[in-house]
Amino acid sequence: MNMGGGEDYSNSVTSETSKDEKSEVEIASKEEETISSVSGLEKEENPTENNITEPQNVSTTAETAPVSSPSVEASKPGDTTEGETTANAAQEAQITSQQNWEYEQSIKKEVEKTPLVCLTEDIQKLYQEYEQGSEVYRQKIMKLAERHSKIRRCRGDGNCFYRAFGFAWFERLMDSKDHHLRQSALKSLADTLPLLNKAGYQQLVYQDIYEEQVEKQMKAVANGEYDEAMLLTIFQTDEISNYIVLYLRLITAAYLKLHREEYEPFLGFEFGMDQFCNSSVEVMDQEADHIHVIALTKALKVPVEIAYMSGSDAMEQVNFHEFYPDEDVEKGTVPLKPLVLLYRPGHYDILYRRE
Amino acid sequence: MEPTSTHSASTNNDNLRKTQSNSKVIKDSNSVLNRLKSELKQLMFSQPPGISAFPDTDNLFNWVGSIAGPEGTIYDGLTYKVTMKFPSDYPFSAPCVQFQTHCYHPNVDENGNICLDILKDKWSAIYNVTSILVSLQSLLGEPNIDSPLNTEAAELWAKPEVYKKQVMKWFRESNNKM
């Protein structure tokens, strides 16, 4: 694939950042109660930090994060103290769900300026985001860069885990050219149909999505019909991309429902599994947490490693969490190399290991 | 570390985005239509009691439905007409559902707009025509008094006799107009 110089792209990101900041001020002035939390965060914000992660952090409320979530605890990378976080949470709790919904809609429009899945960028670009910001983050990125060469950003619309997972999975299969690997991926995908049925979902909800979108795309990948540009087009096309996200959400929910004894204890007292899936898994734009990652990787038998970067941990160290579906992967009998994602509070992107 | 092969970015990316917008329009309506056809088929095979729905005209994006008040509630014996308008990105967005028969109810305003979480922020693609109508049917008998669109109805809910009079008054007036 012919990849040219990237100056234009970085310029466009910068200009979008300033636009975002401007309109976020406008939004804030309409929503009086949120002004202090938004603008307060803005001031502490590293001015060059990528705008993709911001709206997510701001919109994270207690309501949308029933599972104890690292994104609440560290709603701003690095500089936010615990006291401020608590104050912000209290303010956000006062906003009625209607206001909250309208506010999230207005932020959504800003977020939509980023493609659903972007082209890869050198890991150095990630470092540059924090050049005038958190030292902790810079140290961590330096560490990350030792083993990782590139990052592929995903839109911060709350679907980023599913979209990043989907793209990374399809791309891994595309690149491997291993017939056996591709066939077993198709088999894993086909196995999700009885899973969804058993979990009580109506066929009309998932059957067409499976046949017309997800399976169709994976078959095209398995048949070697796609290159990187084509895969990117697929994942940048709202409808196809969102159907893939939706299907992954349904699989995640179905797995959780069918293993509720195991996972319900993690939800907290007020949530049953059905209610949790209803509000935090099946609904588009709802962020994913540990529990979602575990469920999806197990349901599809796809190993994932996630680099967790938050400002609170020790410097010069990036924590990797391994989500391996079963022991077979650890024994190395499943040949699929783990997908690698980067997590920053409230957001997932894709990472590329150095060969 | 210098950025090297990473971005054909703006040129390449812009091109990608242009080509996709064309195909999107065509594909959009196809899969939405397929989904709506499946829903229609499902309704024809198994219709929950007291509920019906059918496309209004030849346009599969506009439906009319009816909901019978649940037995043993104030709305028992009354049947309400609703319209459902499906957006082009259905089922990613909820349909716009409105009462056509005037429904005196804490969560319905005078224009028939409905305040129901699954039609707003709690919407997800697992909901469909049937489940929406079933939810509306149970909303009739179990209003959410705490966030009313019709405050008068919310206040009167505790006095069933007065409440019932209002319900009947609006129901009759509305049916006479139709």
Q: What would the keywords be for this entry?
A:
heterodimer, A: alpha+beta, 3 helical TM bundles of succinate and fumarate reductases, B: 178 residues, alpha+beta, Ubiquitin Conjugating Enzyme, four-stranded antiparallel sheet, 42% helix, 13% strand, disordered N terminus
Overall CATH class of the largest domain in chain A: Mainly Alpha
Examine the coordinates and then state which fold CATH places here, giving the name of the CATH topology of the largest domain in chain A.
3 helical TM bundles of succinate and fumarate reductases
Q: Could you say which overall geometry of chain A the principal axes of the C-alpha atoms support?
A: globular
Task: Bin the strand percentage of chain A.
Answer: 5-15%
Helix content of chain B: 40-55%
H/E element order of chain A: HHHHHHEHHEHHHHHHHHHEEHEE
Which overall shape of chain B is indicated by the principal axes computed on the Cα atoms?
globular
Q: Which H/E pattern describes the elements of chain B?
A: HEEEEHHH
The strands making up the biggest β-sheet of chain A line up spatially as 1-2-6-5-3-4
Number of strands of chain B: 4
Mean pLDDT of chain B: 86
Low-pLDDT ranges of chain B: 1-28
Tally of discrete structural domains of chain B: 1
Structural class of chain A: alpha+beta
* Strands side by side in the biggest sheet of chain B: 1-2-3-4
Point out poorly predicted stretches of chain A: 1-86
Kindly give the count of domains of chain A. 3
From the coordinates shown, what is the CATH architecture of the largest domain in chain A?
Up-down Bundle
CATH class categorisation of chain B: Alpha Beta
Number of helices in the DSSP assignment of chain A = 18
